[in-house]
Design a protein that fits this description.
The structure is a single chain. By secondary structure, the protein is α/β, with parallel strands linked by helices. The chain has a single domain, classed as Rossmann fold (3-Layer(aba) Sandwich), CATH 3.40.50. 37% of the residues lie in helices and 14% in strands. It is built from eleven helices and six strands. The protein has helices at residues 2-14, 44-52, 69-84, 99-107, 111-114, 131-136, 140-146, 160-163, 182-185, 198-201, 223-235; strands spanning 29-33, 56-60, 92-97, 117-123, 170-176, 208-212. The chain has a six-stranded parallel sheet, sandwiched between helices. Helix 3 packs across helix 4. The termini are far apart.
């Protein structure tokens, strides 16, 4: 005890201050949500970058292939938020890939979470559905791979993306413009990332929009996407981030 007290006095006398790191300072919480049939590991590169910038992160793994969108949001994402940030009642930021963005929109239908959702970056999110889903949803193999949530992401009037309404939070949308799959791109109007058209990613009342040369599968690992995501979380815009 004496040694500890003496050390503290010596540090004070010499004018030193304890080093403040990302793990010790009061950092804002950021939730990462992967896409359909992906895993939390797909968001790890983004997560590490956010941690280096001082954010507290929660990279949620959820059973995307086993439940519909509403069940995933209510029974998996919401409880995980409580476990990640116990006692936290302030804003929660989100960084999402593909269906992860739809889950945030679903979560925002709950008044409790609607008030707490802060800034949200959506990468390759089918905010108006995907024509690829329209084409494949009747295939047994697709139903097996995508589970109950997959067919919900089409472009029909009764599809989940069409029913959730405009953004009621600060949304930054990043769309990809490069496709590894020209066959699927033939199903999509205009520019696309191989799974989702650029036009479908846009959301009414979004805060900002950015298109990058990246494919759907890897956009969350794209260095420019990571850079712009950090900028949006800080400032609510992509536009002044260096490219």
């Amino acid at each position: 005890m004496k040694a500890t007290a003496m050390t503290a006095l010596l540090i004070s006398a010499l004018g030193y201050a304890p080093v403040v790191t990302a793990s010790t300072r009061q950092a804002e919480p950021v939730v990462l949500l992967h896409g359909l049939a992906r895993s939390a590991s797909s968001m790890q590169k983004m997560e590490r970058a956010l941690q280096q910038e001082g954010y507290r992160t929660c990279n949620i793994a959820y059973p995307s292939r086993h439940h519909d969108v509403a069940t995933l949001a209510k029974d998996h994402i919401a409880p995980a938020l409580q476990r990640c940030f116990p006692g936290h009642e302030g804003r929660l930021h989100f960084v999402t890939h593909s269906m992860g963005g739809i889950l945030v929109r679903q979560l925002a239908q709950d008044e409790e979470y609607a008030k707490r959702i802060g800034r949200v970056v959506m990468m390759g999110t089918p905010n108006h559905g995907s024509e690829v889903i329209d084409h494949l949803s009747s295939w047994k193999v697709f139903q097996h791979i995508a589970g109950p949530a997959g067919p919900q992401l089409g472009t029909g009037a009764d599809a989940i993306p069409q029913l959730l309404g405009p953004a009621n939070f600060e949304a930054g949308i990043i769309a990809g413009t490069f496709s590894f799959n020209p066959a699927l791109s033939l199903l999509l109007p205009g520019q696309d990332d191989g799974k989702v058209s650029v036009g479908s990613t846009k959301l009414e009342r979004m805060q900002d929009f950015l298109a990058l040369r990246s494919s759907h599968a890897f956009i969350m690992r794209n260095p420019q996407a990571i850079k712009h995501t950090v900028h949006f979380l800080r400032h609510g815009s992509f536009r002044t981030a260096a490219t």
